[in-house]
User: Fold these one by one.
Assistant:
Number 1:
Amino acid sequence: MPAIVLITGATGGFGSAFAKRFAALGSKLVLAGRDMNKLKGLAEEVGGTSYLVQFDVRDRAAVEAGLASLPPDFAEIDLLVNNAGLALGADPAFKSDITDWEVMVDTNDKGLAIVTGLVLPGMVARGRGHVINISSTAASYPYPGGHVYCASKAFVTQFSLALRADLIGTGVRVTSVEPGMVQTDFSLVRFKGDAERAAKVYADTVPLTADDVAEAVTWAATLPPHFNVNRVEIMPTTQGPGALGVHRT
Ligand code: NDP
Ligand code: 8X3
């Protein structure tokens, strides 16, 4: 069981589920998010011992300040769960808002790399630690309207594997967790508050839950130190890869 767990995007669907699971296991939590009120509400709901840090993962100075503010009994992070992320839009690439592309790359890739880069040296110095990156099936299976989101998650998976290459012999583990369809606010965010469109994503099917993803994350995190899960890909039973697109005249 990791003693100290830092979760980014803790206020969202996955992040809150991870917080509950790790609190139940007895881990101390560093809950990171953009909204301090939501973080406080989560900490009360979760119980256990937590420290709250407010930062936007895209803002390197804010992440540095947040991590520097950790009291000594929360500073030695054993597990970093890089979870903060989002998709924006699902229109074809040639009709998309390039600002949405910037936000996705800045959050899912730049932000994830910043947090990792700041936490990793301490783990290496201590000779132990684990980074779990929340990627997606979108990293491996592109779909229409996925373009930059799919590519941003391919970065997460490949970054995770490349970190493994650098970390051999350090005692630090890295895992890429790659879920398919999971019902959270993800689609509401993607469709910019259009609740009807978001609900259609999950209609008449059985998606995974955030707690299902937490099952995969806690499994990888609680294995013995010699055991590294490189990648975990999970989907609902009701989902599978689609056919390649063909244009017919
Ligand atoms: P939610 O929208 O419920 O949660 C996303 C979380 O990320 C929120 O806490 C949000 O905070 C936070 N966040 C977004 N941008 C930033 C930022 N710039 N800085 C800090 N925090 C930020 O979605 P999920 O819980 O479903 O998504 C969590 C992760 O899982 C994402 O990386 C997503 O891409 C990935 N994923 C989701 C799947 C799904 O089907 N749901 C499947 C596969 C992967 P705030 O409330 O402040 O916006
Ligand atoms: C979220 C899953 O299929 O909407 O990463 O891209 S999907």
Number 2:
Amino acid sequence: MSEQKVGLEIANGVAVISIDNPPVNALGHAVRAGLVEQLAAAEADASVRAIVLACKGRTFSAGADITEFGKPPRAPGLHEVIERFDNCRKPVIAALFGTTLGGGLELALGCHYRVAVESARMGLPEVKLGLLPGAGGTQRLPRLIGPEKAVAAIVSGKMIGAKAALADGLIDAIVSDPVQGAIDFAHTVDPAKLVRVRDRSDKIAAAKADPSAFEAAAAEATKRLKGVEAPAACVEAVRNSFTLPFDEGARAEQQAFMRLVVGDQSRAQRHVFFAEREAQKIPGIGPEVKGAKIGRAVVIGGGTMGGGIAMNFANAGIPVTIVETDEAALSRGLDRVRGTYDVSVQRGALPAGTTEKRMALFSGSTDWGVMAEADIVIEAVFEELGLKKEVFARIDGIARPGALLATNTSTLDVDAIAAATKRPGDVLGMHFFSPANVMKLLEIVRGKESSAQSIATAIAVGKTLGKVPVVVGNCDGFVGNRMLARRTIECERLMLEGALPQQVDAVVKAFGFPMGPFAMGDLAGLDVGWRIRKHRGATAPVSDALCEMGRFGQKTGRGYYIYENGSRVPTPDPEVEALISEKATALGITRRAISDQEILERMTYPMINEAARILEEGIAIRPSDVDVVWVYGYGWPVWRGGPCFHADLVGLKEIAARLEHYAQAVGDETLAPCALLRRLAAAGQGFADFAQDAKAAS
Ligand code: CAA
Ligand code: NAI
């Protein structure tokens, strides 16, 4: 079996060992066994002078097989494999191309030399899975590029391009063909002068003498990471590379890896990694349904969302036209886009000259005729059903047959919009999140008529734009906002019952969200929710009163908090505290001290209950899709895996009991656990069991 995964070819004194394990040459058990076997064969063959380690297919290895984590280890482990390469008495050259990641790079670091094609990228992204590189990466990388650069690379998990890798000493040459380049390189090396990476000391000597530069680099790399275990473990491991002998450092690294890999944070992050990929698999839509290629896009409406959506296309190199009602609105929209690029360039986030390059892909028009050329039309006009229907009827008359027609509505009925056209199969929702050029989540709202082809194209477009697409059903708020609405109701109640915005925000931030709900509301603008409430005849005594006072949040300098002199830092405001007390008294509520635990439960459990309803109704395909929505659209901490993953950790029995309690205490029946939550809780099951059953049934 191992022969199938790792091949060996010998010619002119050079043995080429090739991993062949599609799609990403992950280092699963069969690969590891094959490597040991083929390396031994190459070493034993007297005609072999040097060895090239190569990979077949689209990339060098992406690292350990993540699906094996958490299962009983099977020998040979990756350590053992790398040690054998390390101890090989013939020169070994790794031939890198594509993305060389994690254990794949660690394997290459166990070779004597590394050559790469110019487009190759390499990195140790284990931190993104809640781990640290566990096969010697934290010890070998510093010995090649220095501990300061190594700690930055390992804590961020970012990839390094071939040119930078060459400059830093990570690779030894850039070649035009990986295998031939490595073979040519092999002929130039002197087998008598082999130095193993583990024995090199030149790059760690400075840190050994004075670790201050390393400590500064470590502090910089970890400054925004709180509550997360892996980055600190990465720092400690890299520090060991210059404070401990290699073997001791490697042992400590392995121990840290074993500790992290069984922890909830890493489990959560691995869950999200697979959930993101699973979300793109839609039952009933097989791989034979390919997304159509998009060569030109039109976005109708160049406001907050339209401009941001259009930027995604330009960023992906796709020409895009913004259509507006008049020239003034058009130039306002295009100016805002230009301004956003300019700010990124000024901040150094984008290279100089980017604005012009990207703007060259933009055009603007008030003439709807431009739509005839488009492969995709995305509507982002005001949130009014009548207007959207009118717009879609008009698009229908102009767009070419087969073009994808999408609405960015956040609340309206996608079926009603689709019905305004004679081609509802080509219509769906593409719900981007604000700021649309930044936020990764894309909810693809499937109308009852949306065709498989349209869904496949929308998913492909989302991926091309660098988004994380999740297909959801058509209902009020879809998945994300429908759950958020539950949290928003509790926010208002908590204020009236005795909590203050700052207390609630602190609890939600301590849980791991980048922002609390009140600070978030102030940033987004309180008038948005106010308008929606008025439209629906709903009320929120405190929030409505703030809006009546003109306190719309950051943009007016006052909201739930006060923002003085243009500051963006929320400062608690006694006036808000007084207002809350006054409203509570008027409603006959005696305010009480509310514990942080109660706040956390009410900020999460009602949303989890709504997730269960969403699953019950088939609005989300699977619980992990809900998790992806919340991680990528709403800042749910990735190391907590999303609401459904988190719920399973807490236990649905506990959550159902608490919801029962709150339903009675607050007097709101909708807080009581829904039928699905009740059923799973009673059976001692979790969302994971529900997902498994659903998969088995389909
Ligand atoms: N193990 C198992 N499966 C993997 C995998 C891995 N390391 N990396 C990717 N896959 C699977 C994906 O789940 C996906 O499977 P499906 O087609 O069934 O959904 C398939 O390979 C293709 O992956 P992508 O859709 O992500 O393909 P892409 O071309 O967009 O991206 C990639 C390729 C950049 C390699 C990306 O998959 C990636 O980032 N992979 C993870 C890399 C990583 O984190 N490696 C470190 C592993 S941990 C480690 O190595 C620990 C250690 O130190 C010992
Ligand atoms: P906006 O008010 O900033 O922009 C709307 C733009 O549409 C304006 O520039 C207007 O001139 C233009 N417009 C109106 N009628 C038009 C027509 N007939 N033809 C061409 N252009 C027309 O609104 P925003 O915030 O960009 O919202 C747009 C859509 O996106 C709405 O459906 C909204 O619900 C949705 N949305 C908004 C989010 C947000 O956070 N602002 C998030 C996700 C979706």
